Amino acid sequence: MNRSAIDEAFISAPQAMLIVDPVADALVQVNAAGLSLLKCSAGDCADLRFSHFFGDGIALWVSFTDETLARGEAWSDDLNVLDLQRRPHAVEVNARLMADGKNILFMIQPRDLLEKRRNHSEARRQHRLGHVGWERISQVFERIERQNRLILGAVGEGIYGLDAKGLTTFVNLAAERILGWSASDMIGHDAHQMFHHSHSDGSRFAVQQCPIHASFSDGQIHQVDNEVFWHKNGEAIAVEYTSTPIFEMGRLVGAVVLFRDIRERQQAELRLREALNEVEQLKQRLELENQYLQEEIKAERNHHDIVGESPAVMHLIRQIELVAATDANVLVSGESGTGKELVARAIHASSRRSDRPLIRVNCAAIPRDLFESEFFGHVKGAFTGAIHDRVGRFELADGGTLFLDEVGEIPLELQSKLLRVLQDQQFERVGDNVTRAVDVRVIAATNRDLREMISAGSFREDLYFRLNVFPVRSVPLRERVEDIPLLASHFLRRACESFNKPDVRMPMAQVEVLKRYLWPGNIRELQNVIERQVIVSMEGRLRFDELLASSADPIVSSAHCEGEAPVADDQFLLQQRSNTLAMLKRANGKVSGPGGAAQLLGLKPTTLASRLHKWGIDPREFKVKR
User: How confident is the model at residue 554 (pLDDT cuts 50, 70, 90)?
Assistant: First the structure.
């Protein structure tokens, strides 16, 4: 035989063959079967040491190699090799020292493959024994059935036996009940063809792929939990089963199969998954609702906290009472800071929906490409970054009220979808084709002129009319000046509680200063001014003269605010002296300290003492004699 034929025989040999230089720990040559076993290419193996494939079994391999070098040959079925993915394989190894006295030829076969081949060989040998041999095998199953008759009849699981041909040898009562076939129908017949011939989708289940038949060919236990048996009436029965091989005097003679009907368990698991999914959705919804409620609590807003007694406020309250009893959509218009959100909360709190949440959406704060997801939600994978399902604001507000703040900021392309939801009370999440129904009342607010936006083509007219079913105007503070004392007292009380400064007072003279200011920032600006002055207040008194004088907005006279004529300086001084005397009388002649005239007037005690000295007034004259 020439050299090329020898090389060809080495390369194409059916078992893994490796030529190794043990001193250099190098793979000299590996055939195709060896590369397949090691899961590597010829190039990969050339770069690796032979010991790379030993893992924790390196001591056994060293001992085996020494035996080969000493004796010229060795055999072992107690070794393991690791493939390139570091997965172990139990192997049988024949080794022979080559003629050069240096290299060793390793012939390696996987033990599981050898076991399978031996089992096949044994099965063919039993088949050649003929009818007498099979009669002897049938007696094995008869003995199994006879010795375990009580158990077979008592258990709830189906049990049946198969010989090496796949023919049924015995069946218990539970198997008859589950499958609908009687023992006489099944015994002696091919069980696979009778009730295991198709997958759950109806496709053919070849017997060569059947784990049950594999048990009496490879001698291994097979457990399966996702197949079906077929009832006599054609109904699919979801089952889990264990196929255990039976040996008689070292010969593999068949298998015993134990199976359970798991349909009820699968239905229970499905109901449980659906219930858990529903609970998870409710949990997410409640968490989001709780988040909004917590935001409201942190903001310390009271739904009914509309402060004022002016005609404008009384008219606003009457409008709220009228529309709250209905489900009509409301459009609240007005300048920034006039309390549009407070109006929306008051409408919701007085409505039949008050037990459900008021969900607020600041349309001006939502990125343009996230509007649809924010309003309607999305499903997992709908777009990049959608790593889980998300509930939208409309779904959160189901049964309650949705407050769309700054509604004029909604992109024109989304306005048609919003209009559809308002008309039909239905929507789809982004990336989903399931239509969801909601019951939502919408209150919108804007500080922009929507009619001008309609003329400019940036706001849909049909959406405007759908939102503007009941218009409400939130009047600016300059049109309700008479409410400033009440509002200032309200904000002062809240600021004192928040900043833990309970003794701060606001003199009436300073309230008059507030009434002479234009308030371009409206109620929000008034609240901020009060809170700032509470923070910086000294000696428990608020002063606004310097604060408002430094403002870019002008101070207006009382004539502008209250319709009164301006007074001359001498007349003003007379009013100032008269007011000081009244405060001295009220303070019982006390100038400084808590309850003193200086505190009531919002002046420093030294300033008041200087004025009294200038006017020649002795405060002791105002003490009530007892």
Answer: very low
